[in-house]
Request: fold
Amino acid sequence: MKFFLDTANLEELKKGASWGIVDGVTTNPSLIAKEGRPLEEHIREICQIVDGDVSAEVVSTDAESMIKEGRELSYIHRNVVVKCPLTRDGIKATSTLAKEGIRVNVTLCFTAGQALLAAKAGAYIISPFVGRLDDIGYTGMDLIRSITQIYKNYGFATQVLAASLRSPTHVIDSALAGAHIGTMPFKVLDMLFNHPLTDKGLDQFLKDWNKVFQETTAAR
Ligand code: E4P
Reply:
């Protein structure tokens, strides 16, 4: 399973990348706006921090403008994956961009039917939003299970990226469901490390070690 960071914050990306376990980055217009810098410059900097797929989203809503914007985004850096929303125009733009060899991440997916449309349009990635479905009373993870099964049934090459993950449990369940990628906020990636027995165990190991070897050193 590939781990992507769902953030445009450069400090978080640098910290995550330093652990050697981050395979890519997803951004969206809200995350970019939070950083308050011009998109092109910011995406280029992200690509210098993480050497992997970096999703950058179009903000146009009609197919023709999305295609133009998608092409421009793809010129920023070879690692850029163009993100298009799951609308009629977004699917039309995805189909055109995919035929030109531009990799597209189709975002804002909330049903398996929508995921089928994205795969048929030649999407490189589909992004089903788990947390946002949970927020309105559905079990978001069921969607990941359905899409991975359907794609397997037909051999679609589109990668399933579990998005809107809000907890370590979401990440584990996405892995169990067979998602190719999980994108998560820095906070969730950081939380994956934690277990009280790890801390307690390490504390005890070091106490036992120091009792013998520090005392031996001190006695010399
Ligand atoms: C994915 O690409 C989206 O940016 C993201 O996962 C949305 O997450 P949210 O629902 O926590 O905003």
